[in-house]
Design goal:
seven-stranded parallel sheet, dTDP-glucose 4,6-dehydratase activity, NAD(P)-bd_dom_sf, NAD, three-stranded mixed sheet, dTDP-glucose 4,6-dehydratase, 12 strands
Length: 360
């Protein structure tokens, strides 16, 4: 049985990845989920798998070398999938040092602990061990509105403390691959959306606010462009890179779905109107009149666009979920999990299982 160490597995993408892996492999794998349970970590995301014999949760900070070393010492880890990171740009502008601490130092701790556990006396590494560092397209900076794409060879040009900290963590992984021949890969992905996404992010924020008749804030002129990928497609890409990717390579993961922020908002409003029953009082609240333009974000990148040519050619991955279907699936999930959304927006989720995991 192969053992996976997943960092940040209680977060949005990490929890979706864990669900995907158990759906695909069931009892063929074991997953150890390490998460510090900051505001973005929510154990309710994993409530339906928490009692599996082949799943273990460990409450620990990736910056805690002693705790991470203990996880490696007590388990024969075959794969590391490193999601854990501070990821919200607005928060990084207010508290950049927190992002440097978690994203750069935390990644250094993860690399050092994996290296210590996997390295042989001659400097080589045990067979079939792999470390996957999950990163973002934001490390590449911004593209012009009239064309161009991010490739794996695109020079890094981060503009926010968040993207700078992720660029720093990418560089550390690259350095370990070059210096030690450390068995790793990097993936840089476009914007994700789907179940369990924390409602400070654009799509769940707009869904939640629209259903309550609250203002829908839009930065600047709303014409900033992002490439959107359904989160399960991302989970599949990560698994395929772990199994089929060439060691020491970087793979860009994109959705072929570029849309302006304001366009996303209009699509959500139209889809909500389509999906809500006529007798649902919330239908009357969903209106374009809620759209409110606000002062633009500092250092706001104008356009991101990923070219996933390499991962398609080498591994055979490509996005499967078109945005029209993905947004319907996402909205349907939020309809079915209103209690989850209520707990997250109220902060009650942070009390969930607090006593159970206090000593882990």
């Amino acid at each position: 049985m192969r053992t996976y160490l997943v960092t940040g597995g209680a977060g949005f993408i990490g929890s979706n990845y864990i669900h995907y892996m158990f759906k695909k492999y069931d009892k063929e794998i074991r997953i150890i989920n390490v998460d510090a349970l900051t505001y973005a970590g929510n154990l309710e995301n994993l409530k339906d798998i928490e009692k599996r014999d082949n799943y273990t949760f460990v409450k620990a900070d990736i910056c805690d070398k002693e705790a991470i070393s203990r996880v490696f010492a007590e388990n024969d880890i075959d794969r590391v999938v490193h999601f854990a990171a501070e990821s919200h740009v607005d928060r990084s502008i207010k508290h950049p040092e927190v992002f440097v601490q978690t994203n750069v130092l935390g990644t250094a701790v993860m690399l050092n602990c994996a290296k210590a556990a996997w390295e042989l006396p001659d400097g080589s590494f045990k067979a079939d061990k792999k470390f996957l560092h999950v990163s973002t397209d934001e490390v590449y900076g911004s593209l012009s509105e009239d064309g161009g794409y991010f490739y794996e060879t695109t020079p890094y040009a981060p503009h926010s403390p968040y993207s700078a900290s992720k660029a720093g963590s990418d560089m550390l992984v690259k350095a370990y691959m070059d210096t030690y021949h450390f068995p790793a890969n990097i993936t840089n992905c476009s914007n994700n959306y789907g179940p369990y996404q924390f409602p400070e992010k654009l799509i769940p924020l707009i869904i939640n606010n629209a259903l309550q008749g609250k203002k829908l804030p839009v930065y600047g002129d709303g014409r900033n462009v992002r490439d959107w990928l359904y989160v399960e497609d991302h989970a599949k890409a990560i698994d395929m890179v772990q199994e089929k990717g060439r060691l020491f390579e970087t793979y860009n993961v994109g959705g072929h779905n570029e849309k302006q922020n304001i366009e996303i908002i209009h699509i959500i409003l139209d889809t909500l109107q389509e999906m809500l029953p006529d007798d649902d009082p919330r239908k009357a609240l969903v209106s374009e009149d809620l759209i409110t333009y606000v002062e633009d974000r500092k250092g706001h990148d104008r356009r991101y666009a990923i070219a996933p040519d390499k991962i398609k050619a080498e591994i055979g991955w490509e996005p499967e979920t078109c945005f029209k279907d993905g947004i319907k699936k996402t909205i349907a999930w939020f309809f079915e999990h209103e209690e989850w959304l209520k707990n997250v927006t109220s902060g009650d989720y942070q009390k969930y299982y607090e006593d159970m995991y206090h000593t882990k």
